[in-house]
Amino acid sequence: MAIISEYNEQDNKPAVSAKPFNAVLDPANPLGFLEAVFEFLGRESDIFKSDSLVRDVNAVVRMVKDKLETEERKRKDQGPGLPGNPEKKLKEDVTVKETKTEGVKEAMEEDKKGPLAPNIGNGLDLDNYSWGQSIQEVNVTIPVPHGTKSKFIVCDIKKNHLTVGLKGQPPIIDGELYQPVKVDDCFWSLEDQKSVSVLLTKKDQMDWWKCVVKGEPELNTQKVEPESSRLSDLDPETRSAVEKMMFDQRQKSMGRPTSDDIQKQEVLKKFMAQNPGMDFSRAKIS
């Protein structure tokens, strides 16, 4: 496994003066407040130059929403507490960090009801990360707080297991990989101090992954559509295998025989024609 760091952590950046932001929240129009926030950010920062802005904002919104929902559930479960109880408040502050991902897990349980349609990269956009794939590789992007340095990243890539997160915090990804990878051909890097990019090289380069880590939402591999330009880059043997796999997936989705089934039926028909006196009524094709 290789680690790529694309910046010098020792660089000293000039201090940036804080810009005052003044706005009034109208509870009846919270989106108007957010619009004012983003207009201010657009004027005073380079936030809209980021290609991952929408994904990063979605991750922040989801994280805050899950945290608030978790706190609300705790209040309902525990009932009204005694006012001014510092010990109880301390326990709540400690345990909220351990339970802040419960909302994400519940959302993922809902996603398990059925396979999902893939994103443009033939992967999925999840709450804490997004991923895409080619027939040979899997690319995982995990947003992290802006300004994060590589020394605070935890990324452990093993043949059948992946762990990614920040030091001192619960892992963002931690589980058994969908399929084994070639560890020596896997890499991770910190992109613009705001996202971790993980490249996983598949050991079996003739199959589409349904998920990165087992137990998480799965995509519908029958809807995977590799780019024709990528197919043309493959060697003839690999391209033939990929096209066969795509054909079989389409056939299965329509309840029709796969290429192997068709081949077996042709062999049986030929054998029946050569042996008209034999009884094939109980013949089984396997």
Outline: elongated
Walk across the major sheet and give the strand order: 1-8-9-4-3-2
The proportion of strand residues reads 15-25%
Portion in helices: 25-40%
Rg from C-alpha positions? 26 Å
Uncertain stretches:
6-12, 96-100, 106-112
What is the N-to-C succession of helices and strands?
EHHHHEEEEEEEEHHH
Report the average pLDDT across residues. 77
Largest sheet descriptor: 6 strands, mixed
Number of discrete helical segments: 7
The assigned structural class equals: alpha+beta
Q: What separation lies between the terminal Cα atoms?
A: 41 Å
**Number of DSSP strand runs:** 9
Keywords: Cytoplasm
Biased composition (Basic and acidic residues): 69-78, 86-114
Subcellular location: Cytoplasmic granule
GO molecular function, one term: unfolded protein binding
Description:
Residues 69-119 are annotated as: Disordered. It is found in: Cytoplasmic granule. It holds the Pfam family CS. This is Nuclear migration protein nudC. Keywords: Cytoplasm. It contains seven helices and nine strands. The chain is of the alpha+beta class and 286 residues long. Among the domains are: 31-111, no CATH class; 226-273, no CATH class. The protein has a six-stranded mixed β-sheet with strand order 1-8-9-4-3-2. A hairpin with a 4-residue loop joins strand 2 (124-125) and strand 3 (130-133). It starts with a strand and ends in a 12-residue tail after the last helix. The model is unreliable at 6-12, 96-100 and 106-112 (pLDDT under 50).
